[in-house]
Amino acid sequence: xxxxxxxxxxxxxxxxxxxxxxxxxxxxxxxxxxxxxxxxxxxxxxxxxxxxxxxxxxxxxxxxxxxxxxxxxxxxxxxxxxxxxxxxxxxxxxxxxxxxxxxxxxxxxxxxxxxxxxxxxxxxxxxxxxxxxxxxxxxxxxxxxxxxxxxxxxxxxxxxxxxxxxxxxxxxxxxxxxxxxxxxxxxxxxxxxxxxxxxxxxxxxxxxxxxxxxxxxxxxxxxxxxxxxxxxxxxxxxxxxxxxxxxxxxxxxxxxxxxxxxxxxxxxxxxxxxxxxxxxxxxxxxxxxxxxxxxxxxxxxxxxxxxxxxxxxxxxxxxxxxxxxxxxxxxxxxxxxxxxxxxxxxxxxxxxxxxxxxxxxxxxxxxxxxxxxxxxxxxxxxxxxxxxxxxxxxxxxxxxxxxxxxxxxxxxxxxxxxxxxxxxxxxxx
Length: 429
Prior knowledge:
Elements: E1 4-11, E2 14-20, E3 27-37, H1 42-54, H2 62-71, E4 76-84, E5 87-97, H3 108-121, H4 132-151, H5 153-165, H6 179-183, H7 187-200, E6 202-209, H8 214-224, E7 247-253, E8 258-265, H9 275-286, H10 292-300, E9 306-312, E10 317-324, H11 329-345, H12 350-360, H13 364-367, H14 370-378, H15 389-397, H16 401-409, E11 412-421
Parallel strand pairs: 2-6, 7-11
Antiparallel strand pairs: 1-2, 3-5, 3-6, 4-5, 8-10, 8-11, 9-10
């Protein structure tokens, strides 16, 4: 379904995007995302969404916050930290019931917007700063999150390969910073980071639902207009078009299953460069159950427990992940590279191309939920142009076999990383 959207820039460095979902859903979503350069401040920046989402000056305890959310028909607040190219994205999101379901014609959406503004602009400060108790709690939670991610060895292997591959690039930095950096953070540093975020971040405000978005836009415009936003932080991602050499790294951990990760450079000069053809090419290669990696390396050759390829448009990378037995390391590596060589030679069928385009133009995961719609538009906050899912599908449908082959021929292998399991492994997959 083609939902209409409206995009404005009411304040310097702020995009306001409203999507009219035509009364198809019960929940509505208001999202605020802040993009900052990924740098040595990653750890302190990463604490901000969690700190802001739990309390504010009007609702200074978790109990009071939960009571207020209950009064908004069970509204929910969520927060997240992501990496988009060499930018760090901090997000706060309020999900609430659509206005039309209120019992007394309350404007739930406007109340939800007021809450989001309170969380952003009026934190639970004491003496003009975040409290030590709140900061220490958030540091503990962030460290626990990082440790849990590192216990996922599939995630760990992907992260290690990316770090090695991009060791001289900003992209090697973690979206959350490192544990040692988090431990050093104090209240003053977090408060300074909060002020810097409001003044220098590129901001996206998204409203998804059938409510009247105009009053919400006015609220955010008025609030952000009180902030000096004359010195926005420049956002830039370095693209390496080709690998100079192939790096091979092997590490060991006490795990049962080996993890083989291969990093490739897609040959892009920026995030717009030929990305549609690369997207289709990567999908045919390793995107789904119809892909060459799944059908040949995993199913026919039985060399991997899983084997897939993902395209990172924001950095111009293609990452291949597979779970293998240690003794199959070379066989799996050779088989994966053989399948990619076939892509370069055009050794894939018209049915392969059709299956990929059909999968990539299936918009149900986007259009069937307000969360999917919100993710679609907020995910474009740093793009030059914002497009609808239908426009994207139309462009994908026009990608030709020749364009796919040309895209594959422009890719170079950069890094091969093997996380080998030791004999006494007892891994929790």
